[in-house]
Amino acid sequence: MRDALFARIEAKTAELVELTRDLIRIPTVNPPGDAYADCAQFIGERLRRRGFDVAYPRGEGTPGDSDRYPRTNVVARRAGGRPGPCVHFNGHIDVVEVGDGWTTPPFGGEVKDGKVFGRGACDMKGGIAASIIAVEAICEEFPEFAGVLEISGTVDEESGGYGGVAHLARQGFFTRPRVDHVIIPEPLNVDRVCLGHRGVWWAEIETYGRIAHGSMPFLGDSAIRHMAAVLEKFEREFYPYLATKRTTMPVAPDGARQSTMNINSIHGGLAEGFEGWPSAVVADSCRMVIDRRYLIEESYEEVRGEIVNLLEALRRERPGFRYDLRELWTVPPTMTDRNAAVVRAVAAEIERVLSRPAEFVISPGTYDHKHIVRIAGLKECIAYGPGILDLAHQPDEYVAIEDLVASAKVMAASALALMGSGQA
Ligand SMILES: [Zn+2]
Fold first, then answer.
1. Is 183 helix (H, G, I), strand (E, B) or coil?
2. Distance, CA 122 to ligand 1 centroid (Å)?
3. Among 78, 86, 242, 344, which is disulfide-ready with 52 (CB 3.0 to 4.6 Å)?
């Protein structure tokens, strides 16, 4: 039975390539959220013609939603001939801005050397196309399959997913018994199962000073110098300490297999963007945004507490040191059990299709997985899809046609196995 399914998918190679190209040609750039409704309808119409029930839930009132830029999602559902679990493929339809350095048209979907090029080719219109072909192949080959197939195309993953997966999760779209297993075809490489992601804690630190004439800085108190003391503590104490915090999570790449912190931005003193010459003042405020990525072994309280302790130590040691700490957002780390049914099914099919064992990885950054786990409480969720993660958001982004086909086979056979159709 698996042979028939795989033969059918191979016969659909040209169709899979054309579908990927068609999706790339809809320029769903976020921000601002261009052409979301066009892309959602394109997917929805295609699946409606193949017997799916299609809905277009709009993330009304979510960040960025307006009549000009509606946050239009699409959810398509088709029940088989017999009852059984529901397998849901979720892909984000938004892509990031184009940027410089392209040698192919970013929204052209050019095919060259066995690859499809374009913004979103790997992240993640190739994955969406592969999942659509996978479910269509099941419907054609086994129209009386047991279970339910769902596909969603959702918005705004690149900006937090609030109008997309988070919105759908709040509406119950990812809740049992409606959905049992979720596969997100993000570009994590065709032989890897992604079990989840590290946690995130974003915060803004502001130091305060006292304004004075720049020719007599001793009459004021520089907020920038106070921030320099924070930076010095980071360099001398905090970064070496973070490097000692290793994780058992299989994060790839290896450099992210520990706690990390990026200093996102620093702004101090005179506001930017003025015309003419700067005026001579001592900075009375300096703000720094930090982006701390944390591990399953750490708690939010611990991560926050480390920064509070560091700032409190400076307050004791350094005359005039005053600060505020504002938390911007936080996402706890998440890691699906290696023994979850969806993990075992996809890993087994990877081995079968590619003749090598699946690798298990954790993403250094977060993706829509978080909303499915936290809002919908569904633990049966992984990311698996074609495309190389390093190419995401880069110029000349591409997906290999060979990987599109292999991943479609893995997705189709895994879905059949999870729905308990017994044919695979
Ligand atoms: Zn993505």
1. strand
2. 8
3. 78
337 and 297 in a common domain: no
Which residue segment(s) compose the domain that 7 sits in?
2-197+333-418
The residue type at 34 = D
How far, in Å, CA of 92 to CA of 172, rounded? 18
Give the active site residue among 65, 94, 150, 368. Answer: 94
DSSP letter string, 313-342: HHHHHSTT-EEEEEEEEEE--EE--TTSHH
The catalytic residue among 136, 150, 157, 298 is 157
- pLDDT tens for 45-101 read 999 999 999 999 999 999 999 999 999 999 999 999 999 999 999 999 999 999 999
> Is 94 a catalytic site residue?
yes
**C-beta of residue 190 within 8 angstroms of C-beta of residue 278:** no
Question: What one-letter code names the amino acid at 92?
Answer: H
157 among known catalytic residues: yes
- d(CA 60, ligand 1 centre) in Å: 22
Do 300 and 377 reside in the same domain of the chain? no
Is-cis flag, bond preceding 253, omega within 30?
yes
Q: How far apart are CA 209 and CA 226, in angstroms?
A: 8
